[in-house]
Amino acid sequence: MTPPEPCRLCGADAASVGRQMLLGRHEVAYFQCPRCELIFTERPHWLGEAYSHAISQLDTGAVERNQLCARMTLLLAVTLGLAPEATALDYGGGHGVFVRMMRDLGMDFRWFDPHGENLFARGFEGDPARHHALVTAFEVLEHFADVAADLDRLFAGRPDVLFVGTELHDGYRPGWWYFMLESGQHVCFYSARTMDAIGERHGYDVFAGPQHTAFVRRDASIASGRRRLLAGLVARPSVTQPLVSLLPAPLLRWLTPYRSRLLADHEELRRRMQP
Q1: Where is 214: in which H helix or E strand?
Q2: Which residues pair with 88 in a beta bridge?
Q3: Confidence at 116, pLDDT banded by 50, 70, 90
Q4: Rg (CA), the chain
Q5: 134-138 and 87-91: which strand pairing?
Q6: What gap in Å lies between CA 141 and CA 203, rounded to an integer?
């Protein structure tokens, strides 16, 4: 019998709920916390093997997901009334594709990733310890090996809004596709209750949907009406995502107060290169 392990978020004793084979050769125990519902693996000793490449070759949806996330984030920014000069940060930004997309859409996004190589947003790096109006973290939280400490770093700058993308669970189900057993990179999993526990820990209101969750700092100057609109945006992806996907890009840009930074960024980078 597998002994319980302390929950990596709240510290409660978490019982083993099953074992699964990761990377085709590591039999790994999974635990679920009775208090906050976090599901997590045993201490992940296989991560060096799992991260031989920063992006799993199984992630065929990476480009499409960046496109959808860019449109969702733009809609979120408009919903919250973020000013064009408001600074934003993409935490776990990978190769910088999303940051480049958001700057092309007119938002002042910055890149941060302690494990990735910035290829597309070089020159526009940021620091999560500094305050930003908006921080995004897509397909990041499920990679946290030390959940509480990693979340503390994510919330360090006390952003007004943190917008994350991760699939929420409704209990442990062996073979759930989001366990990503073949890649071995997903090591913790969240429910709506887990997100509420995170919000309570950091002082944020939580608006959770099946794929996206928004954390809004309780003392941020964001009107209650805008918060309600945000709740609807993340709670009904079956409506929001098709709508966002179908809107033509030129119309989407016209509907927002943001204007592309593509040429301005080019000139800024050229200026920095001058002797």
Answers
A1: strand 212-217
A2: 109, 134
A3: confident
A4: 19
A5: parallel
A6: 18
**Beta-carbon count within 10 A of 25 CB:** 9
- Span of 1-15, 155-169, 244-258 with lowest mean pLDDT: 244-258
Query: What is the tens place of the pLDDT at every residue in 36-70?
Result: 999 999 999 999 898 876 555 666 767 888 988 99
For residue 238, being part of any structural domain is answered with yes
Beta bridge partners of 109: 88
Task: Please indicate, yes or no, if residue 39 is contained in any of the structural domains.
Answer: no
Average pLDDT over residues 218-246: 85
Q: Is residue 200 part of a domain?
A: yes
**CATH number, position 107:** 3.40.50
d(CA 47, CA 53): 11
| 246 band by pLDDT with thresholds 50, 70 and 90 | confident
CA distances from 142 to 24, 40, 54, 83, 125 (A): 20, 9, 14, 30, 23
Instruction: Answer whether 216's CB lies under 8 Å from 222's CB.
Output: yes
Quote the percentage of the chain above a pLDDT of 70.
Answer: 96
Query: Which tokens in the block code for residue 164?
Result: 């994350």
Q: Which two tokens stand for residue 147?
A: 């959940």
Angle between helices 237-246 and 62-80 (to 10 degrees): 100
Q: Which domain holds residue 110?
A: 59-167+191-273
Residue 245 and residue 87 in contact, taking contact as beta carbons nearer than 8 Å: no
Q: Would 117 be classed as within a structural domain?
A: yes
Residue carrying the six token digits 């949806």: 61
Count of structural domains, the chain: 1
3-state DSSP assignment of residue 273: helix
pLDDT band at 2 (very low <50, low <70, confident <90, very high): confident
